[in-house]
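Box 4.2: Ligand-aware structure prediction
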Amino acid sequence: MTSSSNEFSRRAFIASILGAMAAEVAHAGKPLAGTGVRIGIVGAGVGGLTAARYLLELMPRANITVFESGRTYHSCFKSNEALGGLRPESDLRFGYENWARRVRWVQDTVTGIESGKVLTQRGTAHAFDRIVVATGVQFRYEEIEGLSAQNTLQAPHAWGGEAQFAALRSQLLAMPDNGLVVIAPPPGTYKCPPGPFERASLVAHFLRKHKPKAKLVIADANETFSKQPLFQQGWERLYGFGTPNSLIERISGNHGGKVVGIDAQSRRVKLGNGETLAADVCNLIPPQHAGAMLTRSGLANEGGWCPVDKATMASTLLKGVHVVGDVCDAATMPKSAFSASSQAKVCAFAIANELQGQPAPAPQYMNACFSLLEPGYAISIAHRYGFDKTGNRITQLSGGLTAQDASEEDLSREAQFSEDWFRTITRQLFGPADPLT
Ligand SMILES: Cc1cc2nc3c(=O)[nH]c(=O)nc-3n(C[C@H](O)[C@H](O)[C@H](O)COP(=O)(O)OP(=O)(O)OC[C@H]3O[C@@H](n4cnc5c(N)ncnc54)[C@H](O)[C@@H]3O)c2cc1C
């Protein structure tokens, strides 16, 4: 096959993934009553709300309770575009008002989960037949010398939450014209593997426009990164990457790029290779894990994530509890909103079938991650996944990356796909109830 016909079939593949997402046809089945069944959902982000939406549809008479600590949701997806000044921050903020009539809503922080029970900060214990956990990642600040939960806003990760986003955006606006921005991706598994590199692209776009003498260094703990040849090709075109005058420089893990310490007050960043960078803006993204609450509850293992039966997303450690989204170990799927939503659908069908005494349907998972390099220029990675019973594995069935020789038209179409995906998923999560068709 030629590369243009490859690109054509990939485009058709992404369109089919997005189409399936919009039309919800992938799993739609007959509604099951579920009278009196009590289901608790912990975390009202992508995984939690997708599970709630599907469970409501599949078991209209079930009693569903959602626990969420925040008053509103601040989206990470598309936050890089807002950081780079390409869209207003208000695009990232979503209210939960459309959920009030559909479920019992508990605005409280969950402090513990047991089989059949959710405990909250206000001291209440709630009993359930099934629990779905989707609390998103937590950060291991203490793994970087000089960094802590108390001083993180001086070197904001902006990898979740409104305060973090606001701190990084205001530091970018206030930095000197010839300043230095350091973006530091963490070692290990983290949410949105291409995210730091999309961020580097869009911060570079901002710098070129507003701080033309500034530089950006990616101090990377890892040797390679997601969609690397495509990102680097874009940076070569846009910023002369690889030349002495490049706006973007990357120090990889094998060249000591890992950040090992910081003086948060002065923003001096110590690298593994012994070098110290005097940053004006330091976007230090700490290592991530499922967090202390899930470890204490016996849901996360020593690897830091929650192991699950990958056919149903049921915890392998705690009976009656399912785990979806960033906190579960669903390798080989990346931690992304698309993955979280796909896992939540599999989970909802497995719960509904199990409660009706039926076997869970064969799972099908999907992921597509788009990264914008500048307005009208996006790249993507997309895969369909199946389940291999031997070894409880999620396996890639088909998919791929944007072609290295994609035309301007292809790249601009990817940017439009990315926007369409964002509008669809946020409408499904936060818009008025919209039956699955
Ligand atoms: C910069 C950036 C860009 C990204 N871009 C993309 C993209 O383009 N495409 C994509 O697919 N993904 C993207 N992602 C990844 C995506 O944001 C996450 O993978 C996704 O949000 C995971 O969903 P989740 O449901 O697991 O967690 P979240 O969406 O983080 O939701 C977790 C929810 O649980 C709540 N919660 C946590 N603890 C408790 C508790 N103890 N009690 C009660 N409530 C609690 C939180 O307040 C939150 O509302 C990006 C991430 C970043 C950082």
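In the box above, the bound molecule is flavin-adenine dinucleotide. The two ends are 36 Å apart (CA to CA).
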